[in-house]
Specification:
With about 290 residues, the protein is of the alpha/beta class. About 40% of the residues lie in helices and about 20% in strands. The protein contains 11 helices and 10 strands. A 5-stranded parallel sheet has the order 3-2-4-1-5, sandwiched between helices. Helix 7 runs antiparallel to helix 8 and helix 9 packs across helix 11. The longest helix is centred in the last third of the chain and has 17 residues. The radius of gyration is 26 Å and the shape is elongated. About 35% of the residues are buried.
Length: about 290
């Protein structure tokens, strides 16, 4: 792969790091740390502790890459990649760019047609999901909720009817407020799991309805937190009389939908066969004509 300057471009490596237990570090991580030309670390002090624990001596240049300097440092790293460097990106825990720095650099590298690869590693999202006891076949990762109460409620309302299991990160000092807001929006009996200090000595997974978890969190919680929430249940079909079915069809027709499409949409909303809605529309038309 070549770039405009004629030099062979390098490779950006996203490296997953342990979320708690250092023994979970993938074997390739030590090799990449030892051989990378540049290591971009969210926290260089934590990187130092990681390399010491893995008994690795980095040969490349180490630079900081965190939220505060991500925009400014990305062009510098892209330039190094374009010049042929192997750049290793590591964050404090887990996979870079997943609620951590990294997205800007990946997007910039992709735009320049620079190779991007990864060293898979531990994931708090998938670990919590697997331990939650909630459905795992379909899920949404929502990251951190807004700090302000009004914005938090608004974000939760956006997914109140989401059928897939929801996964969130949260700071321990905001957990009680977040769980209380979830109980308000999703319903107090919605099942959830709070996963705390995953893979660490004091790992804890507390499962139960949101009302119970909110009461528990009000006493104070410490550590890294991942919250998994059950998706919304299937809504029962609406019980609508013939007049309401006809009214809804007319509203859609007035908005520009063809009658066939409007009937199909109203039938889906009401959980009825299309024929039932069609018959109601025809009956109303005949009644109006007779009147």
């Amino acid at each position: 792969m070549t770039v405009a300057s004629g030099t062979t471009s390098g490779t950006l490596v996203l490296a997953g790091t342990p979320i708690g237990d250092i023994a979970d570090a993938p074997p390739r991580l030590a090799e990449e740390l030892a051989t990378a030309d540049v290591i971009a670390a969210e926290d260089t002090r934590r990187l130092r502790r990681l390399t010491q624990a893995l008994d690795v001596q980095p040969a490349g240049r180490v630079v900081s890459y965190f939220e505060g300097n991500e925009s400014a440092r990305t062009p510098e790293l892209v330039e190094a990649l374009a010049g042929g460097a192997r750049v290793l990106l590591v964050t404090d825990a887990g996979m870079p760019s997943v609620s951590d720095p990294g997205y800007r650099l990946v997007a910039a590298a992709v735009e320049k047609d620079i190779r991007v690869t990864a060293v898979p590693g531990p994931s708090a999202v998938l670990t919590a999901l697997a331990l939650s006891g909630l459905p795992v076949d379909r899920f949404c990762f929502e990251g951190f909720l807004p700090r302000k109460a009004g914005e938090r409620l608004s974000r939760l309302r956006e997914v109140a009817e989401e059928r897939r299991t929801l996964v969130y990160f949260e700071a321990p000092h905001r957990l009680d407020d977040t769980l209380a807001a979830m109980a308000e929006v999703f319903g107090a009996e919605r099942r959830a799991a709070v996963c705390r200090e995953l893979t660490k000595t004091y790992e804890e997974v507390r499962r139960g309805p949101l009302r119970e978890l909110a009461a528990w969190a009000a006493e104070g919680v410490r550590g890294e937190i991942t919250v998994v929430v059950e998706g919304a249940g299937e809504k029962a079909p609406e019980e609508l009389d013939a007049a309401e079915l006809v009214r809804r069809v007319h509203v859609r027709e007035e908005a520009g939908e063809r009658r066939k499409e409007a009937i199909a949409a109203v039938a889906a909303e009401a959980g009825l066969p299309k024929r039932a809605v069609f018959d109601a529309v025809v009956a109303a038309k005949n009644a109006n004509a007779a009147g």
